[in-house]
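Quick one, probably user error.
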């Protein structure tokens, strides 16, 4: 059983979400001042060796105090490796640096790799741990909203290949996740806002109450209000944890987490990755998915309107970039991973707010109509 986390004086008590995967179950701690609470981390470290993996942006902000806390905790030997920052460095070549450091430091299989950073660092560190001596332990310390609500939960790890994003990887679950609201204080506004897109996604696919709450509180999230942020992250992680517990390897229901992502990937690919942030592309993609769901007669127009209004307030784009063509949507969407046996499957909304479906069973002309409505 989990010993309860003890709140630091003057901070909100942490929330804990459990990801239920049998003997690979793990807790997600969501709170303030968790980063320097080395006691929680050490509870989930098996051996005595720790390798912290971070990048050149996050290291100067948080690495020193994090490592100091761990060393003070006692018997740990703590090493660190600092990777270059950016999606373009999410590659096998850069990952090699992690394994180099691990081997030079003579880490054994009982070592724990700790990811300190956003989704790029989390995905890379998880894959490095999965492959290191056939499986070292792994802890996620996400420092972006995107990583806290999405990438650190559920065990998808990996790197990009020149021929495709996230094409090399493994399912590998962490021992625990530590989401510290303090770290969001330094996150650039645009990165923060784009993470809110994925929170809106959880409301749309699963949780009308969360959606209503966002309509009341989205400005608090933009202002980094810890209490509001903890609530949004707690709900998001709980929903993702439930979905992952049902379908760890995406045979079915996990695909619903891709709402807006097929349209969004087309937007990201057409512009070249990195021009729009992932959450921004997903925001415009969700508006398109809602539009298509309405055209199919599956949702009330009210849901489209509320989605657009909420995403606008979250400072997200609600249409694809100017100049994007229907042909680009057609070609980039058909190479999407959700294509099975030549048939495009999409996550679409269906029924009252909070319900969706993954289906290839729709009139293709309706997809064409949606695309036409959103390109010039
Ligand atoms: P990111 O990791 O690139 O972080 C965004 C930027 O913020 C980077 O420049 C980073 O250095 C900086 N940063 C991070 N934390 C900071 C902090 N506290 N203060 C200041 N700057 C900080 O991007 P991201 O949006 O966190 O993650 C995107 C990645 O996650 C993509 O590679 C995507 O494929 C992956 N992802 C994976 C999953 C999954 O299920 N595994 C899900 C969603 C996304
Ligand atoms: Mg996403």
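Nope, works fine. Designed sequence:
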């Amino acid at each position: 059983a989990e010993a309860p986390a003890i709140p630091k004086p003057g901070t909100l008590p942490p929330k804990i979400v459990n990801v239920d995967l049998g003997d690979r179950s793990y807790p997600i701690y969501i709170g303030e001042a968790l980063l320097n609470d080395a006691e929680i981390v050490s509870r989930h470290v098996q051996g005595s060796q720790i390798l912290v993996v971070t990048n050149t942006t996050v290291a100067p902000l948080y690495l020193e105090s994090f490592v100091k806390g761990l060393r003070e905790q006692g018997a740990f030997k703590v090493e660190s490796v600092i990777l270059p920052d950016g999606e373009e460095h999410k590659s096998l070549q850069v990952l090699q640096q992690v394994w180099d450091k691990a081997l030079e430091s003579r880490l054994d299989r009982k070592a724990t790799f700790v990811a300190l950073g956003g989704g790029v660092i989390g995905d890379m560190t998880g894959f490095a741990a999965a492959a290191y001596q056939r499986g070292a332990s792994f802890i996620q310390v996400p420092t972006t909203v995107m990583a806290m609500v999405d990438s650190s939960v559920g065990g998808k790890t990996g790197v990009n290949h020149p021929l495709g994003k996230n094409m090399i990887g493994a399912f590998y679950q962490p021992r625990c996740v530590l989401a510290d609201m303090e770290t969001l204080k330094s996150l650039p506004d645009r990165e923060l806002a784009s993470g809110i897109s994925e929170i809106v996604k959880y409301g749309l696919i699963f949780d009308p109450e969360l959606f209503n709450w966002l309509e009341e509180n989205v400005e608090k999230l933009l202002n980094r209000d810890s209490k509001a942020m903890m609530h949004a992250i707690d709900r998001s992680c709980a929903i993702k944890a439930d979905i992952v517990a049902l379908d760890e390897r995406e045979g079915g229901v996990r695909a619903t987490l891709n709402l807006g992502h097929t349209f969004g990937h087309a937007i990201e690919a057409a512009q070249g990755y990195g021009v729009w942030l992932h959450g921004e592309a997903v925001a415009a993609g969700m508006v398109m998915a809602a539009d298509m769901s309405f055209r199919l007669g599956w949702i009330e127009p009210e849901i489209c309107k509320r989605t657009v209004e909420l995403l606008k307030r979250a400072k997200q784009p609600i249409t694809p970039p100017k100049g994007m063509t229907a042909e680009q949507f057609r070609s980039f969407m058909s190479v999407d991973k959700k294509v099975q046996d030549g048939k495009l499957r999409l996550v679409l909304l269906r029924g009252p707010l909070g319900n969706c479906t993954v289906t290839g069973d729709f009139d293709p002309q309706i997809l064409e109509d949606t695309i036409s409505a959103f390109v010039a």
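The CA atoms of residues 86 and 119 lie 10 Å apart.
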